[in-house]
């Protein structure tokens, strides 16, 4: 009797776990939790609100690759995560993971991906 109760409880959970794995696998095509489409939208809309929709500069400087070549991806992802103190450049750590910031940094340096 006790054993039957136990199996009834476990079976639906096992199905739920399988469904969740399938969902995660289908929604993240590239690397673990990176969603390139969403990050590209974020770069052009959110970053673009200060840096210009085409990233040519506005309140914030030009973010096109030719202007960022003096930085490596690691420096850029640090700037993205922590912002630049005493300027309008905010830190994005509350809104994105380190992996996402690295993706954005590489995307800025090499937009053709
Ligand atoms: C609220 C406005 C604002 C938003 C939103 C914003 N930035 Fe900035 N950003 C700035 C300003 C202003 C500077 C220049 C700071 C300074 O004076 O050094 C800057 C500087 C930078 C720099 C350094 C550029 C260089 O040539 O050294 C990078 C890289 C950068 N931002 C990336 C981003 C990214 C990526 C996003 C979106 C995730 C973003 N920013 C969103 C205002 C903003």
Automatic annotation (TrEMBL):
InterPro entries, per the entry: Cyt_c-like_dom, Cyt_c-like_dom_sf
Residue ranges of domain Cytochrome c in the record: 32-112
Signal sequence segment: 1-30
Key words of the record: Heme, Iron, Metal-binding, Signal
Gene3D superfamilies documented for this protein: Cytochrome c-like domain
Keyword Nucleotidyltransferase annotated: no
Electron transport listed as a keyword: no
Protein name: Cytochrome c
């Amino acid at each position: 009797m006790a054993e039957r109760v136990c199996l009834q409880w476990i079976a639906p959970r096992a199905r739920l776990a399988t469904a969740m794995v399938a969902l995660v696998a289908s929604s993240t095509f590239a690397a673990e939790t990176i969603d390139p489409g969403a990050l590209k939208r974020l770069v052009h809309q959110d970053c673009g609100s200060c840096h210009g929709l085409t990233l040519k500069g506005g309140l914030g400087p030009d973010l096109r690759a030719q202007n960022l070549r003096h930085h490596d991806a690691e420096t850029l992802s640090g700037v993205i995560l922590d912002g630049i103190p005493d300027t309008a450049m905010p830190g994005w750590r509350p809104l994105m993971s380190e992996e996402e910031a690295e993706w954005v940094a590489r995307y800025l340096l090499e937009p053709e991906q």
